[in-house]
């Protein structure tokens, strides 16, 4: 079966997070969102977003990268301001799907 590969980053809340005041938490979240928007605009991220109603509350979201390298996806994910601030941790893996089924900005993503 022909499959397309993406780098999947799972975002989790660490067991122990650093404490920040509310203004700092707001700034970290704004920077986190802006960082992911810039990665989507550059084409390095296909799509991303948070999850709700998950049985494991540490699970916060998913990011689907299209860098061609787990190392590059890891490097980009580690540069996320929320990861840098210790608010999120990452798990990086390869994810496969049938060709043409991953859609970004109204178009199918292909190699």
Short summary:
By secondary structure, the chain is an alpha+beta fold. It has 3 helices and 6 strands, in the order βαββααβββ. It is globular, with a radius of gyration of 15 Å.
* Largest β sheet strand count, sense and barrel closure: 4 strands, antiparallel
CATH architecture descriptor text = 2-Layer Sandwich
**CATH class (first level) name:** Alpha Beta
The end-to-end distance, rounded to whole angstroms, is 16 Å
CATH level-four homologous superfamily name: Dimeric alpha+beta barrel
Shape: globular
Strand content: 25-35%
Number of continuous helical runs: 3
CATH topology: Alpha-Beta Plaits
Strand line-up across the major sheet: 2-3-1-4
Coarse structural class? alpha+beta
C-alpha Rg, in Å?
15 Å
SSE pattern: EHEEHHEEE
Helix content: 25-40%
């Amino acid at each position: 079966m022909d499959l397309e590969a993406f780098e999947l980053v799972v975002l989790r809340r660490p067991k122990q997070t650093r404490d920040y005041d509310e203004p700092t938490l707001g700034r970290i979240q704004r920077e986190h969102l802006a960082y992911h928007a810039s990665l989507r605009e550059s084409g390095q991220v296909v799509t991303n977003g948070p999850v709700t109603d998950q049985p494991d509350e540490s699970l916060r979201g998913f990011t689907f990268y299209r860098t061609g390298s787990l190392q590059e996806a890891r490097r980009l994910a580690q540069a996320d301001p929320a990861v840098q601030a210790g608010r999120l941790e990452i798990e990086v893996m390869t994810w496969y799907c049938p060709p043409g089924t991953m859609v970004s900005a109204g178009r199918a993503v292909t190699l």
